[in-house]
Amino acid sequence: MARDIISDPSPALGWPLLLTVALRSLFLEASWNLAGQQNIGFAAAVSPVLNFLYKGRPDDLASARQRVLQFFNTNPMLSGLVIGVALKLEEEKARGRIEDRQLNLIISSMASTLAGHGDLLFWQTWLPFCCILGFGLTWLSLAFGQVTWIPLIIPVLFCAFTGPVRFGGLFYGYRRGLETHKSINTFHVKQIVKWVQRLTVLLSGLLTTYSLKLIPEVHNPNGSLILSKELFLTAVVVSVLGLVLIQRFCPLVGPKSLYVLTVIGLASVTVFI
């Protein structure tokens, strides 16, 4: 059965239809809910493909729409891989080569696997790295007097990696079919995470030292001290401790919230400096 799923050399879905699904998948979490989590976003993303595959077969189309509304949850950045494989399996289902139970089992298994890999790679590793690198680029921007684009630094850095992974993953998953699951082990996620985390720690130390050297003492006209190296170091320590306490005692504040707070902080640099 697995051989039938991946052996078709002439896929029925063209790149315009796949691109449509990729764009719609950006709203995967727009209708997140407790019961099905990302299932509504997933169903909305693959809807054009279902209409294409089951054109003129209303009963099969209704069954397919009900099937894609089952529980679905994975990491958004790696969702393209899951959706791509799901499209390939749905194509085989429309040709009568696979059963509902097997299709659902493969999708749920792959979504769960990639959820763990994606959270580790993107939220716990790549996002902190982008924040640290964004901090360094902020210093450079201030040094050259270019402050208007500071709030865009972290989103651009983050999307420079996640965008190609998200869009390219859908095309890759559809082309490779069931073999995508076997390819996951060749991505070397743990090795990538290890080296990016080491680089993040190194940049943190270098930027902290560099920042302390650059900070002058700033006084009000009345002579009171506004900023000094000691005050800056204290602020850094308090900020780090604050983030640690937030993660420890406020589990509802996840990486996305910290990401938003960091962008707001950089935006305030643009306003007040």
In short:
The protein has eleven helices and two strands. With 273 residues, it is mostly helical. It has two domains: 2-110, no CATH class; 116-162 and 186-272, no CATH class.
Describe this structure in words.
- With 273 residues, this protein is an all-alpha fold.
- It has helices spanning 2-6, 15-24, 39-53, 58-67, 79-94, 100-143, 153-176, 179-183, 189-214, 229-249, 255-272; strands at 218-219, 225-227.
- It has a two-stranded antiparallel sheet.
Content-based structural category: mainly alpha
Based on the structure, what is the oligomeric state of the protein chains?
A: single chain
Computed Rg: 23 Å
| Biggest sheet layout | 2 strands, antiparallel
Name the helicity range.
Answer: over 70%
User: How would you describe the shape?
Assistant: elongated
Number of E strands: 2
Q: Determine the number of helices (DSSP H or I, runs of at least 4 residues).
A: 11
User: What is the total number of structural domains?
Assistant: 2
Can you give the mean pLDDT? Answer: 77
Beta-sheet strand percentage? under 5%
Which properties best describe this structure?
273 residues; mainly alpha; 2 domains; two-stranded antiparallel ribbon; 11 helices; 2% strand; elongated; disordered C terminus
Topology of helices and strands:
Blueprint: H1 2-6, H2 15-24, H3 39-53, H4 58-67, H5 79-94, H6 100-143, H7 153-176, H8 179-183, H9 189-214, E1 218-219, E2 225-227, H10 229-249, H11 255-272
Antiparallel strand pairs: 1-2
Helix pairs in contact: 2-3, 2-7, 3-5, 5-6, 5-7, 6-7, 6-9, 6-11, 9-10
